[in-house]
Amino acid sequence: MVTKKQWEYANFGGVIAFGLFLLLSFLTAEADTAHRVMVLFCEVIGAAVVVNAYLSLHHLNGERRFIPFSIMVFLGAWLVYAIGYEIGVEASTNYNWIWFLFLYIVLIGGFILLRKMYAGLTGPFKLLPIFLLFVNAILFVFILFFNIWWNLPFSG
To answer: Which residue windows are transmembrane per the record (predicted)?
Structure first.
C-alpha cells in the first residue's frame, strides 16, 4: 500500500525528473539525434507524471490534492507545446496562429490556476506551484518571442 507521503514525493520527484530532461532537451538542441532522444524521454516522463498525478488525486485528500492538480495544470501547457513540436508547427505552417492561440489560452489559464494552488497549500510543498508557474512563464516568453519573430515581415 502506498502512503500519502509516498504519493506526494512521487509527484514531486516526477516533476523534478521532467524538468531535468526538459533542460537536457534544450541543451542538446543542436545535436539532432540527441535532441530527439531527450524529447522522447521528456515526453515519456511527462506522460508518466500525468498518470501518477491523476492516480494520486484519488489517494490524497484536503489541501494535498493541490499538489497533483498543480502538476497536471503545469504539464497541460507542455502537452500543447509537445503537440505543436510533434506535428511540426513552423513559421511556414498554415494557420500556426491557431496553435499559438490555444497555447496562450492554456498558459494563461494555467497561470491563474497555479496562483490559486499556491494560496491553497501550506507546508514545504507550497513552493511547488510557484516553481511551476516560473517554468511556464519561461515557456510563455519563449513562445511569445517565436510568435512575434515568425510574424515579422522579413522573417519569411
So the answer is: 12-29, 35-54, 66-85, 97-115, 127-150
Q: Is the separation of the CB atoms in 155 and 91 below 8 Å?
A: yes
pTM of the model: 0.86
Question: Which phi and psi (to 5°) does residue 152 adopt?
Answer: -70, 150
How long a stretch of residues is the chain?
156
Torsion of CA 31, 36, 42, 48, to 10 degrees: -160
Query: How far apart (Å, rounded) are the C-alpha atoms in residues 100 and 43?
Result: 20
Residues 6+ positions from 35 with CB-CB distance below 8 Å:
25, 28, 29
Residue 155 has pLDDT above 80, yes or no: no
